[in-house]
């Protein structure tokens, strides 16, 4: 006789675990199914965890969770082939409680978070792949796993199975994503002595630094590279829209090698030793790509619901918030004894009203605009570098002359006009 | 109804473990802890015998508290109960002290429910000695059957077991009295993908945990580091094998060179002939 739970959550990433934690804490019987050897073993992100949404779930979590370094400086690098224009903000208000964000290693952090859900009473089963939802009379009533006697039932199933949510797809909630809706990210964890990290990145003690790198780091394709400091390792990675990689016939690992050997980046990572190599898809279609996320007896959360703000590199925080909101909707449904799509729809409404929905709406055109207009990453970033070089090189010519040269470098009148229009457009999609 | 106890151990995954280059010892933090692979086969064999003859499978381990995970893995495979002895007094034990502590726990288990058969893995992948199993058998005064690759029959009524023991060039068929102890080869079975109900049971399972005070008639001087006469005098990494020789030149030159090499090494072939 197959078991029945109040809820089954598929996938122990930030969204699934946040949901299972919230449900278990409220006394709901919840089964958390994870395909990896342990939670986090298959999960990838650049490495920044935002404090606020995690703290909404577990106050003061950073005192015991395996976080690497609180970020005190965020640098943004506009990269050309032989130069970089960098701006940064460093603030010591981020060096003390409650902090702003942290670098984390997902293999450690997700395991810790899932343990917390287990302590609340969630039942965690690893190394088990969910093959499909069991649907009866138009309602999801359980899941079928790849194990013998692998059926298990529940009043409600939460799909937190990540970017390529095969389960949501098989329910007809979304189609196969197009290459311009997903980015492919590859990343390495590089081991480096903590002293050297602190010296190279101008850090004191446990403080951390993040660098986002635009332009030549993706050979002009829409995307970004990043370099983050952990305790005694660095996360270096690059992600670019799949459509761009295909168009330029670029292999992501070749791009990462290019970034690692770039003269502006190489000195940061010199002498480090490769520890891990990871690759993952990131859903970057935004608001317009959001699939159906509520059905009879089923909810979709996190990456599976395409909840990523590509412009602000936010994803895990949105995932957690969606997990919590899904749990709250389930608690209401349990109270009412009704798990129909109509009742569970409070999840979708609350999600769209929250910062998650608001931010996705705000940037709904941004990725698409930059995807269609390669000149931002291909031309304008180099132009900014040349202008800076021109302005700061002291060669006896007057500053007036220099400004004239920079103006000439912007191209013909027609090109200047186009550039002005692009700037307006960029403002419009970002504002 | 048989009562079979499998003795298991949680070990670092030595396939990926890093060595500390200064001390030449294992850096245990560099690899995840897993159920010793040979022990998985021991538990699986116990579960198969239970399915064949009826009975109960218990597993026993000695280790730090996180070793509960290894016991849960055995529940996934199909074990019924798990026992763990954990105490600072056991720390630093060599195979002699380990087999003593496990024996004391086995005696306690047997007082509740007499044991017909003990099954161990051939050896652990972190120690590679294969001594603990026979050590337990000696202390419990039962026959140790090592390198078991097939269990032909267990007959509790008439008190015997028949097994195949792996030899270098074949196998031998052996009959032993019960109770006895097997240490098993990997080839004895394949550990299948566990059914979901076992996974759910394992996720909930809490083993019986004993400290040294829970065991009876224990001579503490025989436990842990104190009870371990083994002295590791020196640890060194194996010499790195030298790269082979790549033959170059025309086909004829390469063949000639190959013939020369074979002629130089002809002693190797003679030895083989002699044995055949």
Automatic annotation (TrEMBL), chain B:
Domain of life: Bacteria
Gene3D superfamilies: HUPs
Stretches assigned to the Electron transfer flavoprotein alpha/beta-subunit N-terminal domain: 23-218
InterPro entries: ETF_a/b_N, ETF_b, ETF_beta_N, Rossmann-like_a/b/a_fold
Molecular function GO terms recorded: electron transfer activity
Protein name per UniProt: Electron transfer flavoprotein small subunit
Species this protein is from: Brevibacillus thermoruber
Taxonomy of the source species: Bacteria, Bacillati, Bacillota, Bacilli, Bacillales
